[in-house]
Design a protein that fits this description.
By secondary structure, the protein is mainly α. The protein has three helices and no strands. Helix 2 packs across helix 3. The chain is elongated and about 55 Å long.
């Protein structure tokens, strides 16, 4: 069990950065939606730029409610406690 506690202590900083990245992801996706991906794609993938943009816009629409439900689930109190 000591090994698990040590691993948990070492990963505390990484978990914080991961959580910060997850909660900034909707803003990042909002910034990338209007970006033209066509010049970055190799030859032969001309139509994929529009699909990438559409996928990012859909991910942005889905991610915001999902993060809100995760945040609400984390705020819920236990059965013995009242609302926070």
């Amino acid at each position: 069990m000591d090994m698990l506690k040590r691993a948990n202590a070492r990963l505390a900083g990484a978990r914080l950065y991961l959580l910060a990245f997850i909660f900034t992801l909707p803003d990042i996706l909002s910034a990338l939606v209007g970006f033209d991906w066509t010049p970055l794609l190799p030859a032969g993938y001309e139509g994929l730029g529009v699909r990438i943009g559409a996928g990012l816009s859909l991910a942005r629409l889905v991610l915001v409610p999902a993060l809100k439900s995760m945040r609400d689930a984390a705020r819920r109190s236990g059965p013995d406690e009242g609302p926070r």
